[in-house]
Amino acid sequence: MDEYDEMFLTEDDYDQQFADELEVLAEMDFDPVAATKQSGFRKQKNTSFQGNNTAGDQHLRSQSQAAPAGTPKAKRPRQDVAKKLFEVSQNDDITPPSSPEEFHPPPGTRPKLVPAVLDISGFEGILESPERVTTATQCHALKRPPPVGGYVSVTDHRGNRVYLRETDDLRGKAVDPSALRSSHDALGLLVVPIEVLREQVAERVKFGELEDGPGDEEEEGMSSRLWVDQFSPCQYTELLSDDFTNRCLLKWLKLWDQVVFGRERKPPNRTQGNFNQANPKFKTKSQITEEILEADLDQYKRPKYKVALLSGPPGLGKTTLAHIIARHAGYNVVEINASDDRSAELFQKRIDTATQMKSVLGANEKPNCLIIDEIDGAPAAAINILLATLNRKDGQGVDSGADSGAEPLKKKKKKKESVLLRPIICICNDLYVPALRPLRQQAFLLNFPQTQPARLSQRLAEISRAQGMKVDTGTLMALCEKTDNDIRSCINTLQVSIGSWTFCQNKGLFNLWQEIFQLPRIKRKRVGEGLEEGLKEGGGAQRLQHILHLASSSGEYDKLTQGLYDNFLLMRVKDPSLGGVCDALDWLGFSDRLNQTMLQGQNFSLMRYMPFLPVAFHFLFAHMHVPRINYPSSQYEALTKTAASRNSLAAMLSDVPACIRTRISEISLSLDILSLLLDIICPKLRPVNPQLFSSREKQQLSDLIDTMISYNLSYRQDRTPEGQYVYVLEPRVEAVVCFPGLPPRRQLTYQAKQTISREMELERLRRAETLLLLRNPQEQENRPKVVTSSVRNHQQRLENILRNTVVEIRVNIYTYTNIDVCVEVAMGTAVGNSEVWFRFNEGVSNAVRRNVYIRELL
Ligand SMILES: Nc1ncnc2c1ncn2[C@@H]1O[C@H](COP(=O)(O)OP(=O)(O)OP(=O)(O)O)[C@@H](O)[C@H]1O
Questions:
Q1: Which residue stretches of 469-556 are H helix?
Q2: Which residues of the chain are in CATH 3.40.50.300 domains?
Q3: So what's the pLDDT on residue 32?
Q4: In ligand 1, which atom is closest to the CA atom of 229?
Q5: What is the pLDDT of residues 481-500, one digit of tens each?
Q6: Ligand 1 pocket: which of 319, 325, 456, 480 to mutate (most atoms within 8 A of CB)
Q7: What is the pLDDT of residues 29-59, one digit of tens each?
Q8: pLDDT at residue 584, as a whole number
Q9: Measuring CA to CA, how many Å separate 109 from each of 49, 104, 106, 185, 668?
Q10: pLDDT tens digits, one per residue of 101-152
Q11: Across 22-33, average pLDDT
């Protein structure tokens, strides 16, 4: 059966055998009279569809009933439908035109059917009239592109592709889809219109007839889907998060039942919490949480905390939990991503839409539960909008029936500002983002604990079992540990590793590497015959041929070479001078050059030399022992590192001033400059306030800042996963010159980096201002106090402070003289005729330290 016969359940050995040839013959206008068995069929082809049908019927009958050709056969029940089709077809011949005249229909006649739009997917629905379909497709749907003329390829939902010949009357013209649709309808090609078919399918789905299992398409989709999606939990019981968290969120959501669903709330069981009252000072976190969940509702029958804030590391299933719990509690989930919707108005609109509208999709209209994901990525303005929504006090919107009467416009406006009546669940990774602070105080906080490794590994085992892979628990536990129990990472890693595992299994690469690094076993008899002979047979030419054959048939030269490169140094080498290793490196170099030449010159005749590298490695390193082969990863790692280093260098060079940029390139920077530069920007700075630096130190700091700005380097504050704040050098060029095995570079202290970072900011501002003034000198004239003198910035600041202090004192003097009590004035000027006095405050502070000699105070 060919794929069309298969599709339409017909059987035809002859067709199967000669389907392709027949098509080509049909395309080339082969005279069918001369043909033997098919002659009847071909002869009638150009007459009408009715004829075709008869021929097809005859042929089918000959298959099914073994009756002589031409014997009439009783009509099948659905053939009246087919008849209708063919009656229409007689008027609208859909056969490709056989003569040039046919290309030009007389004006005013209806457009002919365009085979290019034949919807073959619909045929499947007409199971009871296979003959008609077979005939129609045999005539027009070709299995390969027609040798002459244009064609359109059509693929049905099973992936079967056919080619439809274009007719001249439409070639090159814009096709009006409505016209095509009407011509379809007129012909009744689908017998039952597609809309009706769709409705029938929908009905069958509704009544569960089509729930037996996934169709081919679905199965295909399943296999190509990510496992994280495929195995995403659908029910509460499938969740991996701890029960306490699940229960708390569900309880909080249930607090909304009264206002959302109008269900009466059960009186809280306060006996359990009584032990808290005995010692209210010491409440555990869970007790506090329970207390919140037991608290009374507010005036609108809403819980005290209108929003639940779920926080925790990524990939633990927070979003999944929120979705499942919300659905479980009877809500329609509306999710928005706060990092995506960064415009405040849009955010407001989305919140209002989700909290004030009802789901109208599906049979059951459900109230919405809004889930705001990644709220820690939202701008402060968005958080403020959310807070404003939570704190709305207007009661107008509570009952829409309340706003009848006068001033409809005003009411309408008020209704928009209605009080929040739907639960909102926010999700974040970092609870302590500054923008979240106000929300933290108004939210029911639920910290997501780490997933239990045992539970996670059990789930992973289930998933791998479902995918036909058996993985031992130790490996799964190790995977959980490596990923910090991140469900997403675990499942993805499992999927990727099974991918490479399958790949290796299929291609037998591991076997191949093993064959290369292991000597073939010589049979005892042969060993007894003599080593030379044994080598000749078990080794030498035979081994060469064997490895050559294996390597050529694998075809995976790149991966094969990577495997050889990653493993050859792990093999036992008896040669103390490492001559074999040098030879291997020469071979690798040769292979690399060969590959390069081949690809650059597109000279693939050189490819035949590629399998000789494994042969060379076999003769250099093959051993009797079973080798331990590692899957090659060094090339990928090196590529990733190179890309990261290049990106860092490019980022650094991108903002380097032109005068320096002309002198350095990426190569010179990475090979000559960078490692020294990193030492230069790490001077020894005293851990004191820069105001207290000596002039030499100040000069050093200023030079350092100048160098860093010139080379586009800066320090940026970052937070480690452990929550520790650090300053990191940006761009991250340290990694470019950091070689493994060498002692780590000297680092500046956190405080020194902080000082440098702050001073750099100031210096950048100063430079920007100077540049602005240089470009716009008019502004300089308007500003009388522009920094033009060579006096340093901190000196100016000090002078300003002193000036202000004097003014203040004068004011004070004026005030105090009035009341005749002024201690400072009574004391007179300080030592050195200074008006600044030091006052001794009892206590100790290490904030500012400076050596002060007694003589300076005298
Ligand atoms: N019990 C489970 N079984 C299988 N897969 C799960 C389970 N729980 C979650 N997942 C899958 O793990 C992935 C991560 O889940 P989810 O997006 O809910 O995590 P998250 O904590 O919200 O992460 P993020 O903070 O990055 O948004 C999802 O693709 C989800 O389908």
A1: 473-482, 487-507, 509-517, 524-529, 531-538, 540-554
A2: 241-398+415-447
A3: 40
A4: 31
A5: 888 888 988 888 888 776 55
A6: 319
A7: 444 444 333 433 333 334 333 334 433 344 4
A8: 95
A9: 20, 10, 6, 16, 78
A10: 333 334 443 333 333 333 434 334 333 333 333 334 445 677 777 777 777 7
A11: 48
Q: How far is the CA of 344 from the centre of ligand 1 (A)?
A: 28
3-state secondary structure of 756: helix
Top pLDDT among 83 and 301 is at 301
Dihedral angle at the C-alpha atoms of 744, 745, 746, 751, nearest 10 degrees?
A: -90
For residue 239, the ligand 1 atom closest to its alpha carbon is: 1
Residue 555 pLDDT > 70: yes
Residue 470 structure tokens: 């058996």
Question: The complex's ipTM?
Answer: 0.96
The pick from 231, 319, 320 for probing ligand 1's pocket by mutation, whose C-beta has the most ligand atoms within 8 angstroms, reads: 320
Q: What's the CATH superfamily of 241-398+415-447?
A: P-loop containing nucleotide triphosphate hydrolases (3.40.50.300)
Smallest CA-to-CA distance from 372 within 459, 453, 286, 311 is with 311
- Ligand 1 contacts CB of residue 240 (under 6 A): yes
- Taking the alpha carbons of 228, 230, 236, 238 in that order, is the dihedral positive or negative? negative
Supply the pLDDT for residue 529: 47
Give bridge partners of residue 729 from the DSSP assignment. Answer: 715
Answer whether 323 contacts ligand 1 (Cβ < 6 A): no
In angstroms, what CA-CA distances link 469 with 454, 460, 780?
19, 11, 75
Q: Which residues pair with 358 in a beta bridge?
A: 367
Type of residue numbered 334:
V
Q: Are 176 and 194 in contact (CB under 8 A)?
A: no
Q: Whose CA is nearest to atom 24 of ligand 1?
A: 314
Distance CA 642, CA 48 (A): 69
Locate 473 and state its tokens: 């628990």
Rounded mean pLDDT, 451-469: 86
pLDDT value at residue 321: 92
* Cα torsion through 471, 473, 479, 483, rounded to 10: 130
